[in-house]
Specification:
Domain CRAL-TRIO: 114-264
Oligomer: single chain
Structural class: alpha/beta
Number of helices: 10
InterPro entries: CRAL-TRIO_dom, CRAL-TRIO_dom_sf, CRAL/TRIO_N_dom_sf
CATH class of the largest domain: Alpha Beta
Strand order of the largest sheet: 1-2-3-4-5
Strand content: 5-15%
Organism: Ostreococcus tauri (Marine green alga)
Pfam families: CRAL_TRIO
Protein name: SEC14 cytosolic factor-like protein
CATH architecture of the largest domain: 3-Layer(aba) Sandwich
Length: 264
């Protein structure tokens, strides 16, 4: 193993509010958030010299796969795998193959007319505003998404494009940025015709395999009672990420944004 065991890390942790919500949600319902709101996922911090050295070792392990990948991609997977270059290489290799083989190349997504058309529905947008932690926010309006009329491939590609744009915005901030994002799902008016389990499975695979630890918090805005059986299906699939999900009223969601925000 090529793990850099000497790294001194600050463990990923959730706040007490996040732990309380996890306990409250064990019965299957999504937990109500309490004020003050949780800040969500907090990332490990590693010595940058160790991260750079680990990324160099990753390139030695698989030079062909990582030839065109920027350092920040390798470094992120390395941090996700606690500086274990072997495990990070394995996970990052799958990410590179997914990008190139499954139609998720960054440049192609940026230029895709089909994705432009999907974005024009307004079902999912990257907000101009950031949240209270200065993280970018992807806002999804479920009533604009109907399973019978959507094309799953387009919806998935829009999802990845928005995540890419959010991360690019974070990188532009330079050192000290959060490097993560918040996702808000507006469930006001939700009915079963808006319940897209296939897309949810894709989204969950993304946050585990391709964008690990990039989603630091998820808000569900006023889910109606018909959403309960949907959540009972989704929650086990989310595993540890289920603890980052908060059900809030629209009035409560204001606490997750900066004072004077126009989002809610």
């Amino acid at each position: 193993m090529m793990a850099l065991a000497s790294a001194r890390a600050v463990r990923v942790r959730s706040t007490r509010a996040c732990r309380r919500s996890t306990n409250a949600s064990r019965g299957g319902a999504v937990a109500r958030s309490a004020a003050p709101p949780s800040t969500g996922l907090v990332l490990d911090v590693f010595d940058h010299a160790l991260v750079r050295d680990g990324a160099r070792k990753m390139r030695e392990i698989n030079p062909e796969a990582f030839a065109n990948e920027p350092d920040w991609v390798l470094e992120w997977f390395l941090r996700d795998r606690k500086l274990d270059a072997d495990k990070a290489s394995e996970k990052c290799t799958k990410y590179v193959a997914w990008r190139s083989n499954d139609g998720y190349d960054r440049v192609e997504l940026e230029r895709s007319r089909e994705v432009d058309e999907e974005a024009a529905t307004g079902k999912a947008v990257l907000l101009d505003e950031t949240d209270a932690m200065d993280r970018p926010v992807i806002y999804v309006t479920l009533t604009k998404h109907e399973v019978e009329t959507r094309e799953l491939a387009r919806t998935c590609k829009l999802c990845v494009r928005l995540v890419d744009e959010a991360l690019e915005r974070e990188r532009a901030k330079g050192a000290g940025s959060s490097e993560t994002m918040m996702c808000v799902f507006d469930l006001r008016g939700f009915t079963m015709k808006n319940a897209d389990i296939d897309f949810v499975k894709f989204f969950i695979k993304c946050i585990f395999d391709y964008f690990p630890k990039r989603i630091s918090q998820v808000l569900l805005i006023e889910p109606p009672w018909v959403f309960t059986p949907v959540w009972q299906i989704i929650k086990p699939l989310m595993g540890k990420y289920a603890a980052l999900v908060k059900q809030v009223k629209a009035s409560e969601a204001k606490a997750y944004f900066k004072e004077g925000s126009s989002v809610f």
